[in-house]
Structure formats: C-alpha cells, structure tokens
Amino acid sequence: MKQTLGLAILAIFATGIAHADALRMAVTTSFHNSGLAEVLLPEIKDDLGLEVQLLVVGTGQALKLGQAGDVDAILVHSRASEEAFVADGYGTHRREIMYNDFVLIGPAADPARIQGAAEVTDALSAIAAGEASFVSRGDDSGTHKKEVSLWTGAGLDPDSFGPWYRAVGSGMGAALNTASGLDAYIISDRASWLNFGNKGDLALLFAGDPVLFNQYAFLPVDPARHPHVKAELVNKLEGWLTSPRAAALIDGYMIDGETLFVFNAK
C-alpha cells in the first residue's frame, strides 16, 4: 500500500501538535471505520488530559511506523506480526484489548451459494470454483493477512486467481465501497461492516467459524530502541484502555442493537 505519512493521518484528536500531553498511535483502518475511536478518544482526553493523534493505516504499515519510531504505540490485529514486532525488539510487549470477528459479505442473491456453508474454507472454495467477483484489501493489513491465510487454509493461492479476484490496495471502507459497486464478495471485520453506510445489495452471508476470531492488541514502541517515544504517556493510555472505564465503553458501543467489540483485556 502506497501511502505517505501525511495521508496516513486521517484522524487527529488534538488541540495542537506541540501539546505536552499528546502521543501518536498507529491504528488499523478497520478500527477507524468502526467509529469506536470517536467514542473512546474524547473520553481519554477528559479522563487523562491526553491527546491521542491517530495515524490510520493497515496493520503492515502501522508496524512499519512503529519500527521507524514514527509513533509511540500501535493498535492492530494480526497476532503473528505483532509477536514478531515484539520479538524483534521494536515493541515492549503485546496487550490484548478487545475482539470481534471477520465475516464474509457478498451479493444478497449469493451466486456462489455460500450461505449455509459448514466452514469458511468451504465458502471460499465455492467462490473460487464459480469465479464469483471477489474484492481483496490487498494492502498487507490485518484483514488482508487473515484473508490470505483463509485462502491458504482452503488449499488455494490468490496469486493464481483470474480477473474475478480484485486486489484494491486500500482500507476497509474503500474496499467495501468497491465491493458494493461491483456486487462482489469480500471479507470484512464485523465492526466495519455494521458501520458501513453504502451496503447497496450486499449482505452478511457467512460468519461464526472460530477461525474468524479477530483480536485487537496494543503494542507500546520500545523506548530502548527509540528514546524519543513518550513511554510514560503510553503507560497511562494502556492503563486506561485496560480499565473498567474502557470496558464499559467498548462493550456498550453498538449499532442497530449489535455489539461491535468485546473487551477482553487482562
């Protein structure tokens, strides 16, 4: 995904860049598209006097920003990549915060007949067999990494797919817009789908396979590698994100009566 740092700063909740109590956190587009940031960040400011500046990118780019020391902390959803980030000395630790799940979205008419599939691999195999139009994030995000692992689990290689498979190299909202315009199948996190306003003829067609579990985790950038990171402020933020206050806000965030995330910090 080609993004400049300037374009990555899609949401800044701050009165000024030079504010003493401000930190920069890279977050996934799926987290941003869910609308949860608009609930949490004002409360963080009220409770802690802390301005959180969000850099909204895919998980792969978020980890690169952390590796370069361009952010103080990261909130992403790709466990293997997160653990590698910590093991390689870029992050101090990995702290789980909340989860939801991935879902398969597609045309309500369901030409590949994936509704009622026993497992997600069966659903994906049916889409590939029928060469039904499919939109991939294609951006090295946590959602894209999950999608590729699911194709692999079904014994399929996306690199071998024909023109029915469209990798758009964009965030979750833009990818969903493309799927809506093409009447195509797509894998989305549940929160982004519920908060998406341009559903068109798309519908949630498959969910519930345990492999679709989607964990979000908080990673502080290691000040031993990047001494300029604001470790004390990151510790304050982590304490808040794992508190009963955050739990109530995260568990209470709903759209049309549906919960978007479940708090599970320990």
Question: Your description of this structure?
Answer:
There is one protein chain. With 266 residues, the protein is an alpha/beta fold. It has 2 domains: 5-99 and 215-263, Periplasmic binding protein-like II (D-Maltodextrin-Binding Protein, domain 2, 3-Layer(aba) Sandwich), CATH 3.40.190.10; 101-212, D-Maltodextrin-Binding Protein, domain 2 (3-Layer(aba) Sandwich). Helix content is 38%, strand content 24%. The strands form 2 sheets. Strands 1, 2, 3, 4, 5, 6, 7, 8, 9, 10 and 13 form an 11-stranded mixed beta sheet that branches. A two-stranded antiparallel ribbon has the order 11-12. Strand 11 (254-255) and strand 12 (258-259) form a beta hairpin.
Give a brief outline of the structure:
The protein is built from 11 helices and 13 strands.
